[in-house]
Structures are given as structure tokens and as C-alpha cells.
Amino acid sequence: xxxxxxxEYENSFMKSSAFLDKAEKIHKKAYKIANDNRKxxxxxxxxxxxxxxxxxxxxYAGYFYSITVENDKYFCKNPEIIVGVTCLGFLTxxxxxxxxxxSKQWLESWENHIYELEEDITGPLYKTTTNEKTWSVSKxxxxxxxxxxxxWIILGVKTVQIFFGYPLAFVAYFLAxxxxxxxxxxxxxxxxxPKKIQWFRIGED
Length: 205
Prior knowledge:
The chain has helices spanning about 5-15, 25-65, 80-115, 135-165, 165-185; strands spanning about 70, 75. The protein is mostly helical. It has one domain (about 5-130, about 135-185). It has a two-stranded antiparallel ribbon with strand order 1-2. A hairpin with a 2-residue loop joins strand 1 and strand 2 (about 75). Helix 3 (about 80-115) runs parallel beside helix 5 (about 165-185). The model has no long low-confidence stretch (mean pLDDT about 85).
């Protein structure tokens, strides 16, 4: 992947030096596609958020349903399973947080296209606002997911302390957390790379 300067960007979508007779049409088409994809990304962002909200609510319900309190003492039929539930809660909360960041980056990518392409089509519409500063809904959602990550870490530590209490259990718990983070970090990133596409003709050897 290489950097593209402003002149190259304009030649690709606005001036279209390769197709001078179609430059205006390409410009308008690029703007429309960017606008449509922005709408799709916004829609997908909240679909993903609802999916993870539902998952988190289910795991929280499972966690608190499995634990009972009698005479200020905590009881659980299967302490090992409840620790597994906290790891699942952390996994889904962490996945939610990273998905929020990824969705936001794609949304901003299409918004940046609109920002560059809009001038000769609608005027500076996206560049003009009545709010100097306001709350960011996506940032708040991202903070909620980060808060949920922290809550599951704390719940996990508390659970291990109550039902196990020996150092090896804490080591195993934090190793599980580290494994989850490592898997997401090393295998969860997607890079935009050039594709070498191989085509085949059906019915011919």
C-alpha cells in the first residue's frame, strides 16, 4: 500500500485524466457511490452494535443466574463454568470494542471521500455545520464497549478470588485473557492488499 497525494486523488475521481470526456460523469458517480456506502456503513454499524448488545446481555444474564448468595456467601454449582462465562463475556466485549473501531474507520473513509468530492456537486455540504462541538454517538458507543471489557476483567478476577483463591487460578485466568487479546490482535486485522484474480471459463479445459 502506498500513499496517494491530493493531485493523484483528483485525477482519479474528479478530473479523471484517463477519461477526459467522462470526467464529470465519473466525479458524480464516485460521489454517489461514496454517499451510498456511507449510508450502508451507518446501517451496518448499528446492526453490529445491536448484535453485541444482545450477546452481552445474554452473557451477563447467564453469569448472574449461575451465582447465588446466602448469608453473605457466594455459591455456584460449577465454578469452572462461571469462569468460562466471564472469559466469554470478555471475548464478546473485546470483539464489540474492536468492531466499533473498525466500523468507525470504514465510515470515516467514505465520509472523507464525500468531503473531497462534494465541492463541485453539492457545494461544501458536509463541511458546513451548525455545531462547533457536539457529542459523538459512535465514540460513546465505543466507550461503552470498552467499559464492558473492563467490567468483565473485574468480574473475572472477583470470580476467581471467590471460588478458587489460589495463585495458579489467577495465572490461568490472565493467560486466557492474554490469549484472547493476542488472537484478535494478530489475526483480527484486515489489510487492504492488491488482489490477483484468476478467472476460469466454464465448460472449457
